[in-house]
Amino acid sequence: MKKILIIEHENRTCLKRIFEKENLEVSVLTDPLNNEQIFRNFNYDIILCRIYLKNLDGFFIVKWLKETLLLSIPIILFDEDCTYREFRRGIECGADDVISLPIDKTKLLLSLKMRINKISILKENKIEK
After folding, report:
1. What is the CATH number of the domain that holds 40?
2. Which tens digit of pLDDT belongs to each residue from 25-65?
3. Long-range contacts, stretch 26-35, CB < 8 angstroms, 24+ apart
4. Is the torsion defined by CA of 50, 58, 48, 53 positive or negative?
5. Integer Cα distance of 49 and 38 in angstroms
6. Residue 45 lies in domain
């Protein structure tokens, strides 16, 4: 079963239900900087992170995960009515995708599955070499 980590401060039950219906194991984190140990013992396949959290933003979290903790798994940012500027900033800081709320369930699941499949293929190719 694939595992997803959601970094979010609201709408948690809605997102969790969507992913559980797709047979994904879901964990929710509301304060990533005070839970660094979760990332040190990381075993998730993908992260879904809200852009604007209460005390920080998802752009910072993506940079922190990619540059400080050196995580290479896919990260998808999301928030209300994302603009092109937010999309571009998200991609520039290392996110794999940026999705606007309200969430189009089909688009979200397609983006998740594409990223998870890509990582699975890369892992398989690495093992074969």
Report:
1. 3.40.50.2300
2. 888 888 777 766 676 677 888 899 999 988 888 999 999 88
3. 27/3, 29/5, 31/55, 32/7, 32/61, 32/64, 33/61, 33/64
4. negative
5. 15
6. 3-128
For the chain, what is the domain count?
A: 1
- SS3 assignment, position 127: helix
**Measuring CA to CA, which residue among 65, 46, 20, 50 is closest to residue 113?**
46
Question: What's the whole-model pTM score?
Answer: 0.83
Backbone conformation region of residue 11, classed left if phi is above 0, alpha if psi is from -120 to 50, else beta: left
Cis peptide preceding 74, ω within 30 of 0: no
Which amino acid is it at 76?
Answer: I
Structure-token pair, residue 23: 């047979």
Cα–Cα distance measured from residue 12 to residue 94, given in angstroms and rounded to the nearest whole number: 23
Residue 111's Cβ-side half-sphere holds a number of Cα atoms within 13 Å equal to 21
